[in-house]
Amino acid sequence: MITIDSASPVPPFEQLRGGLVDAISSGELAAGQRLPTVRRLAEDLGLAPGTVARAYRELEASGVIETRGRNGTFVSFSDDPAHRAAQQAATVFAEQIRSLRIDPDDALALAAAALRGGDPGSA
């Protein structure tokens, strides 16, 4: 969860930008994951929409996030085509697991077994 410290000498847009980068780096936000709208995130964090928009613009300029028109803003995929395809497959897998209401730890065990070439049902 990103928090903004109003007493910090670091500007709020920079705190938000850094917080989003940290969340992406740690895996808290996954490639392909949709981000909140500017207005929604501004409301959630108690910031002006322009502050959130500035952080989003800077992250987009550096390739960390991407805006897909009316579809929203998403965490970007890697520049490496193989890695990008794997990220997209992982995103689809995660969406399917959530829709099936499978425990994430069970899903990871199933994926690990499948990657090892074993019977995923035996995980």
Automatic annotation (TrEMBL):
Q: Locate the HTH gntR-type domain: which residues?
A: 10-78
> What PROSITE patterns does the database record attribute to this sequence?
HTH_GNTR
- InterPro entries per UniProt: Tscrpt_reg_HTH_GntR (IPR000524), WH-like_DNA-bd_sf (IPR036388), WH_DNA-bd_sf (IPR036390)
Q: Which UniProt keywords apply?
A: DNA-binding, Transcription, Transcription regulation
Which source organism does the UniProt entry give?
Microbacterium gallinarum
Asked if the Swiss-Prot or TrEMBL record annotates the protein with the keyword Glycoprotein, the reply is no
Q: Kindly give the SUPFAM superfamilies that the UniProt entry links to this protein.
A: Winged helix' DNA-binding domain (SSF46785)
Query: Under which name does UniProt file this protein?
Result: GntR family transcriptional regulator
What CDD domains has UniProt attached to this entry? Answer: WHTH_GntR
Does this UniProt record's set of keywords contain Signal? no
